[in-house]
Amino acid sequence: MRVAVLSDIHSNIEAFQAVIRDIEDRSDRILNLGDLVGYNASPNECINLAKDIGMRSIQGNHDQAACSPILANNFNIYARNAILWTRKNLTEENIQFLCELEGNVRLPCGLACHGTPAGSNNYIALPFQARAILKKMKKGTWGNVQVCLFGHTHKRKVWRMDVRGKVAPVEIPLDGTIRLNADEFYLLNPGSVGQPRNGDPRASYLIFDTENNTVSFRLVNYDITSTIQKISKANLPDFLAKRLLDGF
Amino acid sequence: MKRLQKSGKLKDGSEVLLRPMVKGDRKAVGEFFGRLTPSVLQYVRNDVTDPKVLDKWFDQLNYDRVFPLLAFKGDKVVANASLHRVAHGWRKHLGTIRIVVDPEFHGKGLGTLMINELVDLAMEFGLEKLMVEFPLKAHGALAIFKKAGFSPRGVIEGLMKGRHGEDLDIVIMVMDVAAYADKI
Protein backbone atom coordinates (compact mmCIF):
# COMPACT_ATOMS: atom_id res chain seq x y z
CA MET A 1 0.00 0.00 0.00
CA ARG A 2 1.17 3.53 -0.77
CA VAL A 3 0.12 6.20 1.70
CA ALA A 4 0.50 9.90 0.98
CA VAL A 5 1.31 11.50 4.34
CA LEU A 6 0.55 15.20 4.73
CA SER A 7 0.82 17.43 7.78
CA ASP A 8 0.34 21.00 8.94
CA ILE A 9 -1.83 22.21 6.05
CA HIS A 10 -2.76 25.23 8.18
CA SER A 11 -5.57 26.71 6.11
CA ASN A 12 -3.42 27.06 3.01
CA ILE A 13 -5.79 25.92 0.26
CA GLU A 14 -3.43 26.75 -2.62
CA ALA A 15 -0.69 24.52 -1.18
CA PHE A 16 -3.18 21.78 -0.27
CA GLN A 17 -4.69 21.71 -3.76
CA ALA A 18 -1.24 21.64 -5.37
CA VAL A 19 -0.23 18.67 -3.22
CA ILE A 20 -3.44 16.78 -4.03
CA ARG A 21 -2.76 17.37 -7.75
CA ASP A 22 0.80 16.13 -7.30
CA ILE A 23 -0.31 12.96 -5.51
CA GLU A 24 -2.44 11.92 -8.53
CA ASP A 25 -2.04 8.14 -8.75
CA ARG A 26 1.03 7.98 -6.55
CA SER A 27 -0.92 6.77 -3.51
CA ASP A 28 -3.80 4.57 -2.47
CA ARG A 29 -4.65 6.58 0.65
CA ILE A 30 -4.10 10.05 2.05
CA LEU A 31 -3.35 10.65 5.71
CA ASN A 32 -3.09 14.02 7.42
CA LEU A 33 -1.06 14.27 10.64
CA GLY A 34 -2.95 17.28 11.95
CA ASP A 35 -3.33 21.04 11.96
CA LEU A 36 -5.68 21.50 9.06
CA VAL A 37 -6.30 25.04 10.28
CA GLY A 38 -4.51 28.00 11.87
CA TYR A 39 -2.09 30.68 10.60
CA ASN A 40 -3.44 31.09 7.04
CA ALA A 41 -6.75 32.34 5.69
CA SER A 42 -8.67 29.43 4.09
CA PRO A 43 -9.80 27.16 6.93
CA ASN A 44 -13.24 26.23 5.55
CA GLU A 45 -11.86 25.57 2.07
CA CYS A 46 -9.22 23.21 3.50
CA ILE A 47 -11.69 21.30 5.66
CA ASN A 48 -14.13 21.01 2.75
CA LEU A 49 -11.40 19.63 0.49
CA ALA A 50 -10.31 17.19 3.20
CA LYS A 51 -13.90 15.96 3.42
CA ASP A 52 -14.31 15.79 -0.36
CA ILE A 53 -11.29 13.56 -0.87
CA GLY A 54 -12.02 11.43 2.20
CA MET A 55 -8.67 12.22 3.79
CA ARG A 56 -8.14 10.63 7.21
CA SER A 57 -7.02 13.33 9.63
CA ILE A 58 -5.52 13.44 13.10
CA GLN A 59 -6.30 16.33 15.42
CA GLY A 60 -3.40 18.77 15.76
CA ASN A 61 -2.94 21.39 18.48
CA HIS A 62 -4.32 24.17 16.25
CA ASP A 63 -7.36 22.03 15.38
CA GLN A 64 -7.87 21.51 19.11
CA ALA A 65 -7.61 25.24 19.81
CA ALA A 66 -10.07 26.07 17.02
CA CYS A 67 -12.41 23.63 18.70
CA SER A 68 -11.76 24.91 22.26
CA PRO A 69 -10.55 28.56 21.96
CA ILE A 70 -9.46 28.67 25.62
CA LEU A 71 -6.46 26.59 24.53
CA ALA A 72 -5.35 29.52 22.37
CA ASN A 73 -4.15 31.23 25.56
CA ASN A 74 -1.21 28.81 25.49
CA PHE A 75 -0.26 29.98 21.99
CA ASN A 76 2.10 32.84 21.25
CA ILE A 77 0.61 36.17 20.18
CA TYR A 78 0.73 35.45 16.40
CA ALA A 79 -0.61 31.89 16.58
CA ARG A 80 -3.31 33.00 19.01
CA ASN A 81 -4.39 35.86 16.77
CA ALA A 82 -4.69 33.52 13.79
CA ILE A 83 -6.56 30.76 15.61
CA LEU A 84 -9.12 33.20 17.06
CA TRP A 85 -9.67 34.55 13.54
CA THR A 86 -10.05 30.96 12.34
CA ARG A 87 -12.62 30.13 14.99
CA LYS A 88 -14.61 33.24 14.09
CA ASN A 89 -14.63 32.35 10.40
CA LEU A 90 -15.25 28.61 10.57
CA THR A 91 -18.73 27.27 9.87
CA GLU A 92 -20.42 25.43 12.76
CA GLU A 93 -20.25 22.24 10.72
CA ASN A 94 -16.50 22.58 10.24
CA ILE A 95 -15.89 23.37 13.93
CA GLN A 96 -17.70 20.15 14.69
CA PHE A 97 -15.53 18.33 12.14
CA LEU A 98 -12.35 19.53 13.90
CA CYS A 99 -13.70 18.60 17.33
CA GLU A 100 -14.38 15.05 16.18
CA LEU A 101 -10.94 14.37 14.69
CA GLU A 102 -8.99 11.42 16.08
CA GLY A 103 -5.91 11.53 18.31
CA ASN A 104 -3.09 9.12 17.55
CA VAL A 105 -3.92 6.56 14.87
CA ARG A 106 -2.53 3.06 14.66
CA LEU A 107 -2.23 2.01 11.01
CA PRO A 108 -0.84 -1.09 9.32
CA CYS A 109 2.10 1.07 8.23
CA GLY A 110 2.84 2.39 11.72
CA LEU A 111 1.74 4.83 14.36
CA ALA A 112 0.57 8.30 13.29
CA CYS A 113 0.49 11.31 15.61
CA HIS A 114 0.72 15.08 15.44
CA GLY A 115 3.53 16.07 17.84
CA THR A 116 4.55 12.83 19.52
CA PRO A 117 2.55 9.75 20.50
CA ALA A 118 2.47 11.30 23.99
CA GLY A 119 0.80 14.56 22.98
CA SER A 120 0.00 16.92 20.13
CA ASN A 121 1.85 19.81 21.81
CA ASN A 122 5.14 17.95 22.20
CA TYR A 123 7.97 18.15 19.70
CA ILE A 124 10.46 15.78 18.13
CA ALA A 125 13.12 18.24 17.09
CA LEU A 126 16.28 17.29 18.97
CA PRO A 127 18.17 13.98 19.31
CA PHE A 128 17.14 13.45 22.94
CA GLN A 129 13.49 13.86 21.98
CA ALA A 130 13.79 11.40 19.09
CA ARG A 131 15.71 8.95 21.29
CA ALA A 132 12.98 9.01 23.95
CA ILE A 133 10.25 8.12 21.46
CA LEU A 134 12.30 5.51 19.58
CA LYS A 135 13.24 3.78 22.85
CA LYS A 136 9.57 3.53 23.77
CA MET A 137 8.78 2.15 20.32
CA LYS A 138 11.46 -0.49 20.76
CA LYS A 139 10.06 -1.39 24.17
CA GLY A 140 6.63 -1.83 22.61
CA THR A 141 4.93 1.01 24.51
CA TRP A 142 2.56 1.53 21.59
CA GLY A 143 2.44 -2.09 20.45
CA ASN A 144 4.47 -3.58 17.65
CA VAL A 145 5.39 -0.36 15.85
CA GLN A 146 8.53 0.24 13.81
CA VAL A 147 7.52 3.47 12.13
CA CYS A 148 6.03 6.57 13.72
CA LEU A 149 4.73 9.33 11.45
CA PHE A 150 4.72 12.75 13.10
CA GLY A 151 4.37 16.44 12.21
CA HIS A 152 4.11 19.66 14.23
CA THR A 153 7.68 20.93 13.62
CA HIS A 154 6.92 21.82 9.96
CA LYS A 155 10.33 20.36 9.05
CA ARG A 156 10.78 17.21 7.00
CA LYS A 157 12.92 14.81 8.92
CA VAL A 158 13.87 11.17 9.36
CA TRP A 159 15.22 9.78 12.64
CA ARG A 160 16.52 6.22 12.79
CA MET A 161 17.37 3.84 15.62
CA ASP A 162 19.67 1.11 14.34
CA VAL A 163 20.01 -2.43 15.69
CA ARG A 164 22.57 -1.27 18.28
CA GLY A 165 20.11 1.31 19.59
CA LYS A 166 22.01 4.29 18.17
CA VAL A 167 19.74 7.19 17.19
CA ALA A 168 20.67 9.59 14.39
CA PRO A 169 18.98 11.73 11.76
CA VAL A 170 18.99 10.32 8.23
CA GLU A 171 19.96 12.70 5.46
CA ILE A 172 17.22 12.98 2.85
CA PRO A 173 18.85 12.40 -0.56
CA LEU A 174 18.31 14.74 -3.49
CA ASP A 175 15.84 12.37 -5.14
CA GLY A 176 13.92 12.33 -1.83
CA THR A 177 13.70 8.53 -1.55
CA ILE A 178 14.86 6.52 1.44
CA ARG A 179 14.70 2.75 1.90
CA LEU A 180 13.78 1.62 5.40
CA ASN A 181 15.49 -1.42 6.96
CA ALA A 182 13.12 -3.97 8.41
CA ASP A 183 15.10 -4.38 11.65
CA GLU A 184 15.31 -0.67 12.49
CA PHE A 185 12.94 1.90 14.01
CA TYR A 186 12.01 5.17 12.30
CA LEU A 187 10.40 8.52 12.96
CA LEU A 188 9.18 10.17 9.75
CA ASN A 189 8.09 13.79 9.42
CA PRO A 190 6.69 14.82 6.01
CA GLY A 191 7.25 18.54 6.66
CA SER A 192 4.42 21.01 6.22
CA VAL A 193 2.03 21.50 3.33
CA GLY A 194 0.86 24.97 4.31
CA GLN A 195 3.74 26.56 6.22
CA PRO A 196 7.06 24.79 5.55
CA ARG A 197 9.96 25.75 7.83
CA ASN A 198 12.88 23.97 6.17
CA GLY A 199 14.00 27.09 4.35
CA ASP A 200 12.26 25.92 1.15
CA PRO A 201 8.88 27.55 0.51
CA ARG A 202 7.49 24.61 -1.47
CA ALA A 203 4.73 22.47 0.06
CA SER A 204 6.19 19.30 1.51
CA TYR A 205 4.75 15.79 1.95
CA LEU A 206 5.82 12.15 1.64
CA ILE A 207 4.69 8.89 0.09
CA PHE A 208 5.20 5.81 2.26
CA ASP A 209 5.25 2.59 0.21
CA THR A 210 4.71 -0.12 2.80
CA GLU A 211 5.30 -3.01 0.38
CA ASN A 212 8.68 -1.80 -0.88
CA ASN A 213 9.49 -0.17 2.48
CA THR A 214 10.43 3.13 0.86
CA VAL A 215 9.67 6.71 1.78
CA SER A 216 9.66 9.40 -0.92
CA PHE A 217 9.69 13.04 0.13
CA ARG A 218 8.13 15.43 -2.35
CA LEU A 219 8.24 19.22 -2.68
CA VAL A 220 5.53 21.03 -4.63
CA ASN A 221 5.33 24.57 -5.98
CA TYR A 222 2.09 26.43 -5.39
CA ASP A 223 0.60 29.89 -5.85
CA ILE A 224 2.08 31.59 -2.78
CA THR A 225 1.01 35.02 -4.03
CA SER A 226 -2.67 34.08 -3.78
CA THR A 227 -2.17 32.70 -0.26
CA ILE A 228 -0.44 35.91 0.80
CA GLN A 229 -3.16 38.08 -0.69
CA LYS A 230 -5.78 36.16 1.26
CA ILE A 231 -3.83 36.57 4.52
CA SER A 232 -3.62 40.29 3.88
CA LYS A 233 -7.32 40.56 3.00
CA ALA A 234 -8.21 38.69 6.19
CA ASN A 235 -6.21 41.25 8.20
CA LEU A 236 -4.01 38.53 9.65
CA PRO A 237 -0.49 39.61 10.71
CA ASP A 238 1.91 40.40 7.85
CA PHE A 239 4.52 38.16 9.46
CA LEU A 240 2.37 35.11 8.63
CA ALA A 241 2.41 36.07 4.96
CA LYS A 242 6.10 36.97 4.72
CA ARG A 243 7.28 33.70 6.25
CA LEU A 244 5.66 31.72 3.41
CA LEU A 245 8.01 33.33 0.90
CA ASP A 246 11.09 32.25 2.86
CA GLY A 247 9.78 28.89 3.99
CA PHE A 248 10.63 29.28 7.66
CA MET B 1 -2.51 46.41 15.88
CA LYS B 2 -5.24 43.94 14.97
CA ARG B 3 -5.92 41.95 18.15
CA LEU B 4 -2.24 41.00 18.36
CA GLN B 5 -2.36 40.73 22.12
CA LYS B 6 -3.04 38.37 24.96
CA SER B 7 -3.70 38.57 28.66
CA GLY B 8 -1.58 36.91 31.30
CA LYS B 9 -2.24 36.11 34.93
CA LEU B 10 0.17 37.13 37.70
CA LYS B 11 0.80 35.23 40.92
CA ASP B 12 -1.65 37.45 42.84
CA GLY B 13 -4.41 36.57 40.37
CA SER B 14 -4.46 39.97 38.66
CA GLU B 15 -4.16 40.23 34.90
CA VAL B 16 -1.82 42.12 32.60
CA LEU B 17 -2.09 42.64 28.86
CA LEU B 18 0.85 41.63 26.69
CA ARG B 19 1.27 43.05 23.22
CA PRO B 20 3.95 44.24 20.81
CA MET B 21 5.01 47.86 21.14
CA VAL B 22 3.45 50.15 18.51
CA LYS B 23 4.10 53.77 17.58
CA GLY B 24 1.25 55.00 19.76
CA ASP B 25 2.98 53.68 22.89
CA ARG B 26 5.69 56.37 22.89
CA LYS B 27 4.23 58.31 25.83
CA ALA B 28 3.46 55.24 27.99
CA VAL B 29 6.93 53.80 27.41
CA GLY B 30 8.56 57.13 28.27
CA GLU B 31 6.57 57.25 31.51
CA PHE B 32 7.58 53.68 32.31
CA PHE B 33 11.30 54.42 32.04
CA GLY B 34 10.74 57.73 33.83
CA ARG B 35 9.48 55.83 36.90
CA LEU B 36 12.58 53.63 37.14
CA THR B 37 15.30 54.46 39.65
CA PRO B 38 18.98 54.95 38.66
CA SER B 39 19.82 51.60 40.30
CA VAL B 40 17.52 49.88 37.79
CA LEU B 41 18.36 52.11 34.83
CA GLN B 42 22.09 51.39 35.13
CA TYR B 43 21.49 47.94 33.64
CA VAL B 44 19.43 49.18 30.67
CA ARG B 45 21.63 49.14 27.60
CA ASN B 46 20.46 52.46 26.15
CA ASP B 47 20.05 55.82 27.84
CA VAL B 48 16.27 55.65 27.96
CA THR B 49 16.09 58.87 29.95
CA ASP B 50 17.05 60.66 26.73
CA PRO B 51 13.86 61.33 24.73
CA LYS B 52 15.87 61.13 21.48
CA VAL B 53 16.76 57.50 22.23
CA LEU B 54 13.10 56.57 22.63
CA ASP B 55 12.13 58.59 19.56
CA LYS B 56 14.65 56.57 17.57
CA TRP B 57 13.21 53.29 18.89
CA PHE B 58 9.75 54.25 17.75
CA ASP B 59 10.90 55.66 14.40
CA GLN B 60 12.78 52.47 13.61
CA LEU B 61 10.26 49.86 14.79
CA ASN B 62 11.00 46.69 12.84
CA TYR B 63 9.74 43.42 14.32
CA ASP B 64 12.04 41.40 12.02
CA ARG B 65 15.02 42.90 13.84
CA VAL B 66 13.72 43.67 17.32
CA PHE B 67 10.42 42.38 18.64
CA PRO B 68 9.47 44.67 21.56
CA LEU B 69 6.89 43.26 23.95
CA LEU B 70 5.10 45.44 26.48
CA ALA B 71 3.05 44.48 29.53
CA PHE B 72 0.22 46.82 30.47
CA LYS B 73 -1.70 47.23 33.68
CA GLY B 74 -4.54 49.43 32.53
CA ASP B 75 -2.89 52.17 30.48
CA LYS B 76 0.40 51.87 32.35
CA VAL B 77 3.41 50.00 30.94
CA VAL B 78 4.76 47.75 33.70
CA ALA B 79 7.40 45.78 31.80
CA ASN B 80 9.35 46.05 28.58
CA ALA B 81 11.05 43.04 27.03
CA SER B 82 12.58 42.57 23.61
CA LEU B 83 13.77 39.77 21.37
CA HIS B 84 16.69 40.78 19.14
CA ARG B 85 17.49 38.94 15.93
CA VAL B 86 20.11 39.12 13.21
CA ALA B 87 18.83 38.32 9.71
CA HIS B 88 22.04 36.84 8.26
CA GLY B 89 25.25 35.09 9.20
CA TRP B 90 26.48 33.07 12.13
CA ARG B 91 24.01 34.54 14.61
CA LYS B 92 20.95 33.99 12.43
CA HIS B 93 19.72 31.10 14.60
CA LEU B 94 20.32 33.02 17.84
CA GLY B 95 18.09 35.52 19.58
CA THR B 96 18.97 37.71 22.54
CA ILE B 97 16.56 38.84 25.18
CA ARG B 98 16.46 42.05 27.18
CA ILE B 99 13.92 42.75 29.87
CA VAL B 100 13.05 45.49 32.37
CA VAL B 101 10.24 45.02 34.87
CA ASP B 102 8.74 47.78 37.03
CA PRO B 103 10.13 47.10 40.55
CA GLU B 104 6.56 47.31 41.89
CA PHE B 105 5.88 44.13 39.91
CA HIS B 106 8.93 42.18 40.98
CA GLY B 107 8.13 38.79 42.50
CA LYS B 108 4.71 38.62 40.86
CA GLY B 109 5.60 36.37 37.96
CA LEU B 110 5.56 39.14 35.36
CA GLY B 111 9.16 38.55 34.28
CA THR B 112 8.46 34.85 33.79
CA LEU B 113 5.33 35.64 31.80
CA MET B 114 7.24 37.97 29.47
CA ILE B 115 10.18 35.60 29.01
CA ASN B 116 7.90 32.64 28.28
CA GLU B 117 6.11 34.67 25.61
CA LEU B 118 9.42 35.65 24.00
CA VAL B 119 10.57 32.02 24.04
CA ASP B 120 7.33 30.98 22.30
CA LEU B 121 7.87 33.74 19.75
CA ALA B 122 11.47 32.63 19.24
CA MET B 123 10.13 29.23 18.21
CA GLU B 124 7.68 30.88 15.86
CA PHE B 125 10.51 32.93 14.33
CA GLY B 126 12.56 29.76 13.76
CA LEU B 127 15.28 30.62 16.27
CA GLU B 128 17.21 27.70 17.76
CA LYS B 129 18.90 29.32 20.71
CA LEU B 130 18.31 32.26 23.02
CA MET B 131 20.89 34.14 25.01
CA VAL B 132 20.73 36.65 27.82
CA GLU B 133 23.43 38.43 29.81
CA PHE B 134 23.15 40.34 33.06
CA PRO B 135 25.12 41.02 36.27
CA LEU B 136 25.82 37.85 38.24
CA LYS B 137 24.59 39.50 41.42
CA ALA B 138 21.09 39.86 39.99
CA HIS B 139 19.94 36.70 41.74
CA GLY B 140 16.29 37.31 40.94
CA ALA B 141 17.00 37.40 37.21
CA LEU B 142 19.12 34.26 37.49
CA ALA B 143 16.24 32.40 39.13
CA ILE B 144 13.66 33.63 36.59
CA PHE B 145 15.73 32.70 33.56
CA LYS B 146 16.60 29.30 35.06
CA LYS B 147 12.91 28.66 35.59
CA ALA B 148 12.26 29.60 31.96
CA GLY B 149 14.72 26.95 30.78
CA PHE B 150 17.95 28.96 30.47
CA SER B 151 21.18 27.65 31.96
CA PRO B 152 24.32 29.60 32.87
CA ARG B 153 27.07 28.95 30.32
CA GLY B 154 29.71 31.37 31.49
CA VAL B 155 30.70 34.11 33.87
CA ILE B 156 33.02 36.90 32.82
CA GLU B 157 34.55 38.51 35.85
CA GLY B 158 34.74 42.29 36.05
CA LEU B 159 33.58 42.81 32.48
CA MET B 160 31.13 45.63 33.23
CA LYS B 161 31.12 48.68 35.45
CA GLY B 162 28.37 49.67 37.87
CA ARG B 163 27.16 53.26 38.12
CA HIS B 164 29.66 53.98 40.90
CA GLY B 165 32.53 52.54 38.86
CA GLU B 166 32.67 49.18 40.63
CA ASP B 167 33.52 46.06 38.60
CA LEU B 168 30.60 43.79 37.77
CA ASP B 169 30.72 40.09 36.89
CA ILE B 170 28.46 39.15 33.99
CA VAL B 171 26.67 35.83 33.60
CA ILE B 172 25.70 34.54 30.16
CA MET B 173 22.70 32.21 30.04
CA VAL B 174 21.57 30.22 27.01
CA MET B 175 18.58 28.08 26.18
CA ASP B 176 17.82 25.56 23.48
CA VAL B 177 14.47 26.66 22.13
CA ALA B 178 13.40 23.25 20.79
CA ALA B 179 14.23 21.60 24.10
CA TYR B 180 12.02 24.11 25.89
CA ALA B 181 9.19 23.26 23.51
CA ASP B 182 9.22 19.72 24.79
CA LYS B 183 8.30 20.96 28.24
CA ILE B 184 5.17 22.88 27.27
Give the topology.
The complex is a heterodimer of chains A (248) and B (184).
Chain A: E1 2-6, H1 13-23, E2 29-32, H2 43-52, E3 56-57, H3 61-67, H4 77-89, H5 92-99, E4 105-107, E5 110-112, H6 127-139, E6 147-149, E7 156-161, E8 167-169, E9 177-179, E10 185-190, E11 203-209, E12 214-220, H7 224-233, H8 238-246
Parallel strand pairs in A: 1-2, 2-3, 5-6, 6-10
Antiparallel strand pairs in A: 1-11, 4-5, 7-8, 7-10, 9-12, 11-12
Helix pairs in contact in A: 3-4, 3-5, 7-8
Chain B: E1 6-9, E2 15-20, H1 26-35, H2 38-41, H3 51-59, E3 66-73, E4 76-84, E5 94-101, H4 110-124, E6 129-135, H5 139-147, E7 151-161, E8 167-176, H6 177-181
Parallel strand pairs in B: 5-6
Antiparallel strand pairs in B: 1-2, 2-3, 3-4, 4-5, 6-8, 7-8
A few lines on this structure:
The complex is a heterodimer of chains A (248) and B (184). Chain A is of the alpha/beta class and 248 residues long.
> From the alpha-carbon coordinates, what is the Rg of chain A to the nearest angstrom?
17 Å
The percentage of residues in β strands of chain B lies in 25-35%
Mean pLDDT of chain B: 92
What is the name of the CATH topology of the domain at 6-131 in chain B? Aminopeptidase
Structural class of chain B: alpha+beta
- Biggest β-sheet description of chain A: 6 strands, mixed
Number of strands of chain B: 8
Q: What string gives the helices and strands of chain B in order? A: EEHHHEEEHEHEEH
Shape of chain B: globular
Which residues of chain A sit in consecutive blocks of at least 5 with pLDDT less than 50? none
For the largest sheet of chain A, list the strands in their spatial order.
3-2-1-11-12-9
What order do the strands of the largest sheet of chain B run in, or round the barrel if closed? 1-2-3-4-5-6-8-7
Number of domains of chain A: 1
Output mean pLDDT of chain A.
Answer: 96
CATH superfamily of the domain at 6-131 in chain B: Gcn5-related N-acetyltransferase (GNAT)
Helix/strand structural class of chain A: alpha/beta
Name the CATH architecture of the domain at 6-131 in chain B.
3-Layer(aba) Sandwich
